[in-house]
Amino acid sequence: MGSAAKDANGSFTAEKKVVVVFVLGGPGSGKGTQCANIVEHFGFTHLSAGDLLRAEIKSGSENGTMIQNMIKEGKIVPSEVTIKLLQQAMLDSGNNKFLIDGFPRNEENRAAFEHVTKIEPEFVLFFDCSEEEMERRLLSRNQGRVDDNIETIRKRFKVFVESSMPVIEYYNSKGKVSKIDAGKPVDEVFEAVKAIFSPYNAQSA
Ligand code: UDP
Ligand code: MG
């Protein structure tokens, strides 16, 4: 798209426009699962903010303890920390198309990302799912996460409704939200996701 151009071999030559899609939805709405599918079919790089933060804890970084404590409480890590990790991962990838999963989680995240990177998302993919279904998935997925227990799950739901929904509403007011019914089985949800990405992919091919 945009300034990208192709040479005779079909590889990109001109500076590539960075394409970012924010993938948002409550905890357990299926963001990670569907991002893996999108990567496979549409050549995006998947950046899960939560996974980057968990990797940062494991790396023994000086912020590790602070991040761990915030995740355990379902709280939002300071924007500065998360944005640095996202920027580094974007650079490391060598790609120009990104799915940013689970970020921005509040208005401050959103404004800081825009200010620091000057990147506006192409669109926002919003996985809409009932809390009842999300709770069922989180309690049965058993990934050994410190935040997949009922107390933290309830806190994460509250943070999602109070802090993250306003971000989705902000982008919705700009006509940038594609909402998916995420309460269905994985394959059915992916059919809906594909319909959103297909025309978009053709455009940028
Ligand atoms: N988190 C955060 N900022 C982010 C993404 C994640 O602070 O941009 C923290 C937050 O405490 C959140 C936890 O990491 O509750 C897990 O996030 P993840 O996206 O992995 O969980 P999901 O909502 O996808 O289940
Ligand atoms: Mg996730």
From TrEMBL:
Record comment regarding domains: Consists of three domains, a large central CORE domain and two small peripheral domains, NMPbind and LID, which undergo movements during catalysis. The LID domain closes over the site of phosphoryl transfer upon ATP binding. Assembling and dissambling the active center during each catalytic cycle provides an effective means to prevent ATP hydrolysis.
InterPro entries linked: Adenylat/UMP-CMP_kin, Adenylat_kinase_CS, P-loop_NTPase, UMP_CMP_kinase
One GO term of the biological process aspect: 'de novo' pyrimidine nucleobase biosynthetic process
Catalytic activity: UMP + ATP = UDP + ADP; dCMP + ATP = dCDP + ADP; CMP + ATP = CDP + ADP
Key words, A-Z: ATP-binding, Cytoplasm, Kinase, Nucleotide-binding, Nucleus, Pyrimidine biosynthesis, Transferase
Origin organism lineage: Eukaryota, Viridiplantae, Streptophyta, Embryophyta, Tracheophyta
Keyword DNA-binding applies: no
EC number(s) recorded for this UniProt protein: 2.7.4.14
Family statement drawn from the similarity comment of this UniProt entry: Belongs to the adenylate kinase family. UMP-CMP kinase subfamily.
Name of the molecule in the record: UMP-CMP kinase
GO molecular function: ATP binding; nucleobase-containing compound kinase activity; phosphotransferase activity, phosphate group as acceptor
Species assigned in the record: Dioscorea zingiberensis
